[in-house]
Amino acid sequence: MTTAAQNPHQWDDAKSRDWPTEFKEVEISSSADEEIQKAYLYSSQSQIPKPLIVSLHTWSGDYQQKDPLAKEILARDWNYIHPDFRGPNNTPQSTGSELAINDIEDAINYALKNTNSDPEDVHIIGVSGGGFATLAAFLNVEYPVKSFSAWAPISDLEAWYWESVGRKQKYAGDILKAVSIDSVFNKAEALRRSPLSQDFPVKLRKDAELYIYEGVHDGYTGSVPVTHSINMYNRLVGELKYGVSNLDTIMQMAAKDSDLVARKEIIDLVTKRYNPQFEKNVPLFDREVYLHRDYQNIHLTIFDGGHEQLPQALGLIPYKKNTFLDFNILTLGDSNGEIQWGWVNQLRKMMPESEIVNISRSGRTIGFDNLGRTELNALSHINEFMDQAREQMGNQKYDFVIICLGTNDTKKVFAGRQNEVVVNFEKLFWRIKKHSMVKQSNPRLIFVTPPPMRTTNILDKYKGGNERLNKLIPQFKSVAGRKGFQVIDVYHPLLGVLDYYAMDGIHMAAEGQQIVASYIVDYLKKY
């Protein structure tokens, strides 16, 4: 059972306000009352339209609250806005009010006007109080947002008020300030602001995906019981499937409908905080999934965790990946290029019209006989590899040759031979350029830097590898440029996110490999 998930989290620190310099503070005039809403904005440096992420602060936070998603926004180079929407949830103007919802919509429109965001690729995400706001946005924002990701959300303010009273948590006082003017709890106003009780605009959201994620231990180790997520899922699915919005009626149907979550399943999860049959579900990265449901565009995942948003949350967002690029491409890499979920197969998914010949192999080096196997030495066999690649393409020419090597040359066993790596690198690239296939096809040549490696908690054979690789990267880029290769640097962007995408410190999960592939696709789109 995961215990790390139950520790305090960066995203829940409302006092942390240290933002990277790439994020700029902006001011947005409210279209409702002309109040100035502040936000942090990041504009992609790409010339190609990118997704827009609208990240909503937590219950007690505001726009200044540092967002752990920021480092991955930089890694992916996506557009981003972190709006204030009336600040902490302890005033009538905040806490799911019409003004707060309007502020979120104003933030979307501002970001669309001031970045290169794809207007059809807008995504809202939030955790805890931000999850509450995400659900409220799903039901009330008029813009055709593509997806909503609500992590550990509050869906019922009335229930959460009494739950907070019972737990002696400050949130009860916050709700009281938001929904009452006479210090007496206003049940009707709490329900009016609760996503669970609001109208579901089915037609408006028919093309939008709603993802609800919740850790099974929340309510015990955290402040929001798992029932908030399950009830919200049941209520929306009940309306989609039966046209019924009353939760009591829906729960009667749930006893015989596997698309819904039955009362017994809820009790089992709340009491056991475990599902003995969890292996039937696909895990959520390194987390066991105890309950998963999908119905049309509504999705629910209850995982082994607490009151949290997983650091890989952006990797779960259904952004636009596929392109209509039609190229013939040769790829040469190591295990990150060969594995089933690696960057080459991510390229294939993103470029289904293209023909990609992959000669990557696990353990391949630039110029060493790795594991005592000469066939893993690219320098020794490059002419043979290129001949095979030409045969596989037949009479057609390659448009691009993409090389991503260097990780295995920094292994501990080669630590004393690092002065040979750049020499081998230069020889390899010279031989590639001189090969008859390259001369005949005249493809564009691309070098993708190796991704970083974890510096701790890594297999002994890779210890010190990232430090060695860090020294080699500038030399690789210099040599590749001199040899006429375009350089795509994924090493530096991935430094901030590799640790939670690569469980072994070397091989990222598919969602991390997509970052590598997207950098390549962005380059190819120029042609």
TrEMBL record:
- Span of domain Peptidase S9 prolyl oligopeptidase catalytic: 101-248
This protein's UniProt keywords:
Hydrolase
Biological process per Gene Ontology, one example term: proteolysis
Give yes or no: UniProt keyword Hydrolase: yes
Q: In terms of domain of life, where is this protein from? A: Bacteria
- The chain positions of domain SGNH hydrolase-type esterase read 342-515
Q: Name one GO molecular function term.
A: serine-type peptidase activity
Fetch the PANTHER family from UniProt.
SGNH HYDROLASE-TYPE ESTERASE DOMAIN-CONTAINING PROTEIN, THIOESTERASE 1/PROTEASE 1/LYSOPHOSPHOLIPASE L1
Name of the protein: GDSL-like lipase/acylhydrolase family protein
Native source species: Marinilabilia salmonicolor
According to the entry, what is the taxonomic lineage of the organism? Bacteria, Pseudomonadati, Bacteroidota, Bacteroidia, Marinilabiliales
